[in-house]
Amino acid sequence: MELDLTPKLAKKLYGGDGGAYYAWCPNELPMLREGNIGAAKLALEKNGFALPRYSDSAKVAYVLQGSGVAGIVLPEKEEKEDTELVVLFLGDTSKAHKSGSFTDFFLTGSNGIFTGFSTEFVSRAGLGGSVVKTLVGSQSRTGIVKLDPSCKMPEPKKEHYNGMALNCEEAPLDVDIKDGGRLNGKAMCSPGFSCDSALQVTYIVRGSGRVQIADPDGMDWFSIITTPNPVFTHLAGRTSVWKALSPEVLQAAFGVPPDVEQKFSSKRKAEEIFFPPPN
Fold it and tell me: Most exposed residue of 6, 33, 41, 51, measured as fewest CB within 10 angstroms of its CB?
């Protein structure tokens, strides 16, 4: 299959004055379908409220900007519980209805789960017909709504963060190179490949660059990998695959004389995978 690695923008699926929901389409990025990976983005305006829903896919949420409150209900568990908020979702769609796409099922709104049942059926939960009609019909909007500023939501509790949230900015770095960083301006990340067929989907959070060489303002990215214990091999640096090969093998493989092989092997042997810009 021919690979198209051109960066793509997400397309808006729905939204209103409370915000919008965007998704990357597997028809435009076939690797999402091939790798069973979904990608979407939620952008909420101030006082925006995403109606409760459940998804057919396991996913990781990364806050790109802003702050807000998220409530999460795990299967068969009880609930755990301003400014503009933008959240990136990346996740596994191997068990989803559509490979490469997230499908959300809304609990409320004009397309909420109750709208698929008759009033008589829902009223069997012990509710009167008028109450059922009010529950099902009062929220006429879908997906995202804007709440009145006076509407108060439950405040999050610190214990709810345990095992559920991680501040990537405060997490210790696996690799920290002076002037190489995350990538700092004009720094480079060593090229590499997956040894176990794992796929990696990357979202550029800020900055810009060429492949994995940062522009002067630097570049940050966020990725998910489709295996819990990925094995990557890099082509440069301390863990470079070339270090495991003898000079004779390298000379024969590249078809070069010993002096060229020696110059090649002597570079970037003791460094990590991030390289600071040349002086």
Answer: 6
Task: Name the one residue in this structure whose structure tokens are 């959300």.
Answer: 104
Percentage helix, strand, coil, to 5, in the chain?
15, 30, 55
Least confident interval from 99-108, 155-164, 234-243: 234-243
Q: What residue type is 176 in one-letter code?
A: D
> Which amino acid is residue 235, in one-letter code?
L
DSSP calls for 179-235: TTTTTPTT-EEPPEEESS---EEEEEEEEEEETTEEEEEEEEEEEEESSSS--EEES
Please state the domain extents for the chain. Answer: 11-161, 188-275
The pTM of the whole model exceeds 0.85: no
Q: What is the CATH number of domain 188-275?
A: 2.60.120.10
Q: What would the CATH number be for the domain defined by 11-161? A: 2.60.120.10
Query: In this structure, which amino acid lies at residue 178?
Result: K
- Residue 251 to residue 34: CA distance in whole angstroms: 37
3-state SS assignment for residue 90: strand
| pLDDT (tens digit per residue) in 33-89 | 888 899 999 999 988 999 888 888 888 898 998 888 887 776 655 554 444 889 999
pLDDT digits (tens, 9 = 90+) for 119-148: 888 887 777 778 888 888 888 888 888 888
